[in-house]
């Protein structure tokens, strides 16, 4: 039976966000829609307030920045900063209620001209045009209302935390499950079906609990990423490269900056969410620049990237000024490099190799005869 229009909301720390936090949304939406369980009109990630005080919970502005990077390509999952902006920690029941009430308020024709919060999923406002046949039938039968239901999307470990003494109040759980509903994604080592069976309250509302089997199991967690970073090991392919670059740049979770030239470039790119044309670099030498061409290489024989930066005429400093000189221009990502010094023998326009480490940046010309700085 269709449950009408649904927004999936995930609460949690997201310190840092992982690919699995994002996959959870995709898996749940596919499952619900393919079984005609409702129309998922959006997703919301609601990071918890700093006062939650969990171990390794970095400041909410960092967690929000990382979520923005991780979700920059999503067309339907938004980040709500509401919980982090409250004076202290908010119970999940209240957060679900707030988001549901606000969405339904914005859908009312009376509020059509009021400004929408940034976390409001785009399709919420187009919701009538994307109504599915299932919903229309249910509506005609009087089974579903006009409004949107915000459901709690979680992994099975969060469901199992319901049984921890003193963590959740019975009344809150009854409202969360009875009025909103749960969408639970399986996680290794958990048996959510049994957990529901063994809880009288969950069993009573089992129609409101959707269990989604994750057949493409991925046991990455924030803990795993933090551990790898603390040990100076690679966490690549467990979360977005831009998230990892952000972590290194801000020295979060005891991470240390890596030493490859690609990491240097990624760190720089992670700073730029705007289009290249919008970004003006601050530079002590903004006047009298000459173009020079730099090839960023991973291995000596392969040219991976070609970028253009500008060189100050009167000094040995190389700094990108405007990024509108980026080459190739078809690539949407801004590409730039910062190099402390160039050799005085450097000929503008000639390809160079950048070698970098934490303390110094060196530049070599094509024949390998450049000078280390
Ligand atoms: N691999 C996973 N499979 C299914 N659900 C997951 C997975 N990782 C996280 N989740 C879910 O994502 C939500 C947010 O969780 P949270 O921020 O606590 O992530 P976490 O990776 O479990 O964190 P930590 O490792 O710090 O405890 C929770 O509902 C959690 O159950
Ligand atoms: N009583 C409650 O409402 C209650 C209790 C425990 C955790 N939570 C929420 O569950 C999420 C748990 O996140 P973690 O898995 O990162 O601890 C957080 O968003 C937290 O606010 C809510």
Automatic annotation (TrEMBL):
Entries under SUPFAM superfamilies matching the protein: Nucleotidylyl transferase
Involved pathway(s): Cofactor biosynthesis; NAD(+) biosynthesis; NAD(+) from nicotinamide D-ribonucleotide: step 1/1; Cofactor biosynthesis; NAD(+) biosynthesis; deamido-NAD(+) from nicotinate D-ribonucleotide: step 1/1
Swiss-Prot/TrEMBL catalytic activity: nicotinate beta-D-ribonucleotide + ATP + H(+) = deamido-NAD(+) + diphosphate; beta-nicotinamide D-ribonucleotide + ATP + H(+) = diphosphate + NAD(+)
Molecular function per GO: nucleotidyltransferase activity
Keyword Cell division: no
Taxonomic superkingdom: Eukaryota
Keyword Coiled coil: no
EC number of the protein: 2.7.7.1, 2.7.7.18
Occurrences of domain Cytidyltransferase-like (ranges): 9-227
InterPro entries: Cyt_trans-like, Euk_NMN_adenylyltrnsfrase, NadD/NMNAT, NMNAT_euk, Rossmann-like_a/b/a_fold
Coiled coil region boundaries: none
Pfam family, one: CTP_transf_like
Keywords: ATP-binding, NAD, Nucleotide-binding, Nucleotidyltransferase, Pyridine nucleotide biosynthesis, Transferase
Family label: Belongs to the eukaryotic NMN adenylyltransferase family.
Protein name per Swiss-Prot or TrEMBL: Nicotinamide-nucleotide adenylyltransferase
Gene: LOC113396011
């Amino acid at each position: 039976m269709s449950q009408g229009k649904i927004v999936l909301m995930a609460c949690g720390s997201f310190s840092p966000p992982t690919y699995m936090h994002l996959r959870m949304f995709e898996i749940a939406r596919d499952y619900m829609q393919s079984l005609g369980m409702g129309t998922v009109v959006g997703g919301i990630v609601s990071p918890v307030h700093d006062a939650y005080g969990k171990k390794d919970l970095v400041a909410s502005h960092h967690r929000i920045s990382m979520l923005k990077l991780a979700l920059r390509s999503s067309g339907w999952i938004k980040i709500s900063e509401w919980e982090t902006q409250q004076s202290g920690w908010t119970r999940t029941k209240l957060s679900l209620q707030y988001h549901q009430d606000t969405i339904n308020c914005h859908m009312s024709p009376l509020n059509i001209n009021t400004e929408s919060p940034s976390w409001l999923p785009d399709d919420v406002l187009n919701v009538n045009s994307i109504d599915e046949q299932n919903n229309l039938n249910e509506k005609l039968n009087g089974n579903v209302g006009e409004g949107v239901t915000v459901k709690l999307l979680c992994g099975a470990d969060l469901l199992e935390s319901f049984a921890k003494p003193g963590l959740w109040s019975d009344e809150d759980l009854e409202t969360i499950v009875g009025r909103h509903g749960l969408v639970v994604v399986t996680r290794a080592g958990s048996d959510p079906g049994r957990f529901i069976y063994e809880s009288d309250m969950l069993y009573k509302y089992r129609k409101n609990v959707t269990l989604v089997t994750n057949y493409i199991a991925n046991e990455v967690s924030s803990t795993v990423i933090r551990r790898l970073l603390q040990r100076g090991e690679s966490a690549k392919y467990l979360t977005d490269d831009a998230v990892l670059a952000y972590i290194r740049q801000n020295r979060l979770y005891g991470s240390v900056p890596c030493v490859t030239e690609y990491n240097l470039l990624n760190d720089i790119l992670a700073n730029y969410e705007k289009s290249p044309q919008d970004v003006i670099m601050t530079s002590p030498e903004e006047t009298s620049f000459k173009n020079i061409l730099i090839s960023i290489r991973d291995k000596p024989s392969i040219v991976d990237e070609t970028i253009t930066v500008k060189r100050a005429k009167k000094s040995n400093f190389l700094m990108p000024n405007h990024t509108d000189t980026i080459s190739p221009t078809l690539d949407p990502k801004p590409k730039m490099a910062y190099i402390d010094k160039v050799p005085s023998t450097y000929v503008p326009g000639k390809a160079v190799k950048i070698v970098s480490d934490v303390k110094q940046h060196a530049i070599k010309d094509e024949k390998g005869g450049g000078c280390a700085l």
